[in-house]
TrEMBL record:
<feature type="domain" description="Major facilitator superfamily (MFS) profile">
    <location>
        <begin position="21"/>
        <end position="277"/>
    </location>
</feature>
<keyword id="KW-0812">Transmembrane</keyword>
<feature type="transmembrane region" description="Helical">
    <location>
        <begin position="21"/>
        <end position="43"/>
    </location>
</feature>
<feature type="transmembrane region" description="Helical">
    <location>
        <begin position="174"/>
        <end position="199"/>
    </location>
</feature>
<feature type="transmembrane region" description="Helical">
    <location>
        <begin position="58"/>
        <end position="75"/>
    </location>
</feature>
<feature type="transmembrane region" description="Helical">
    <location>
        <begin position="87"/>
        <end position="105"/>
    </location>
</feature>
<dbReference type="Pfam" id="PF07690">
    <property type="entry name" value="MFS_1"/>
</dbReference>
<dbReference type="GO" id="GO:0005886">
    <property type="term" value="C:plasma membrane"/>
</dbReference>
<dbReference type="InterPro" id="IPR036259">
    <property type="entry name" value="MFS_trans_sf"/>
</dbReference>
<keyword id="KW-1133">Transmembrane helix</keyword>
<dbReference type="InterPro" id="IPR011701">
    <property type="entry name" value="MFS"/>
</dbReference>
<dbReference type="InterPro" id="IPR005829">
    <property type="entry name" value="Sugar_transporter_CS"/>
</dbReference>
<feature type="transmembrane region" description="Helical">
    <location>
        <begin position="143"/>
        <end position="162"/>
    </location>
</feature>
<dbReference type="GO" id="GO:0046943">
    <property type="term" value="F:carboxylic acid transmembrane transporter activity"/>
</dbReference>
<feature type="transmembrane region" description="Helical">
    <location>
        <begin position="111"/>
        <end position="131"/>
    </location>
</feature>
<dbReference type="InterPro" id="IPR020846">
    <property type="entry name" value="MFS_dom"/>
</dbReference>
<protein>
    <recommendedName>
        <fullName>Major facilitator superfamily (MFS) profile domain-containing protein</fullName>
    </recommendedName>
</protein>
Length: 277
């Protein structure tokens, strides 16, 4: 009984180091929430000759299209080159896109930069969840997903606060986002290590040693890899007969849920400015 209790505690214990990684993942999701919802606060501030009403609709859609492409196609790179390098690259691209939005001299440039931001957000939003899972005990991974996803609406809240308190014109909203993205890039480079499965894939003995030390540090049971872990060799196919219906229903439902989420967020920003006009 004592042995079982000790083992259970070992696999449910979370260290300050793990809390720091989860907190950083929450921050990354909050950053992406800010980057997406900020456009709702930018649109009412744009000059009349910068974009028509139809053009503004495309500005909202550009980032959403980028998210779809980034999450579906580009996030797969994390399984090839590793979570950490892919996450750092996505943050760098996100920063470039936000700087482009800040400097945009015309509608076309702003549209392109918003698409670039969407590509990066699609990758970061997925990897923030996966990275947090891979650094948590099995029993806490579902809770970790919920905690990390809380960052997204938190980012929308921060965009609203920025709009009402610390900015004087629309470009400043993007300047704040770009600054936060640079800080997140540095924090990720310092605070998020390469994942254990990725380190173990290498034949380099030093990487194997790093993997062993990290596994000991975060108390991760090697027999229970996180969902989507890089080293899982026999993960079920998403369209296998036993999961095909569930997969297709989720693929059908999620876009509608996401569209509703973004529509409400953008509408709230527009309503806020309409009431203050």
């Amino acid at each position: 009984m004592n042995v079982e209790t000790t083992a259970t505690r070992r696999h449910t214990r979370i260290t300050l180091y793990q809390m720091g990684i989860v907190a950083l993942c929450v921050t990354l999701n909050a950053l992406e929430g800010y980057d997406i919802f900020v456009i709702g606060y930018v649109l009412p501030r744009l000059p009349d000759d910068f974009a028509t009403s139809a053009d503004k609709g495309y500005l909202v859609s550009a980032a959403l299209v980028g998210i779809g492409i980034g999450s579906f196609f580009l996030s797969r790179l994390a399984d090839v080159v590793g979570r950490r390098p892919t996450l750092l690259a996505a943050l760098a691209v996100n920063t470039v896109g936000l700087i482009g939005s800040y400097l945009a001299p015309n509608y076309s440039t702003l549209l392109a930069s918003r698409f670039i931001v969407g590509l990066a957000v699609g990758v970061i939003a997925i990897l923030a969840v996966v990275v947090s899972q891979e650094h948590l005990p099995t029993s806490l991974r579902s809770l970790g997903v919920g905690v990390v996803m809380f960052g997204y609406p938190l980012g929308g809240l921060l965009a609203g606060i920025a709009d009402t308190t610390i900015v004087d014109q629309w470009r400043t909203l993007f300047a704040v986002a770009a600054t936060l993205s640079v800080v997140a890039l540095v924090a990720t480079a310092v605070g998020i290590p390469a994942t254990i499965p990725f380190l173990r894939r290498s034949a380099d003995p030093m990487r194997s040693k790093r993997a062993a030390l990290l596994a000991q540090r975060i108390h991760v049971n090697d027999a229970s890899p996180a969902p989507g872990a890089e080293s899982v060799p026999h993960a079920p196919r998403l369209l296998a007969p036993d999961v095909r219906t569930t997969t297709l229903l989720l693929c059908l439902a999620y876009p509608f849920a996401t569209a509703t989420y973004y529509f409400i967020g953008t509408l709230d920003a527009a309503t806020h400015h309409g009431c203050n006009a």
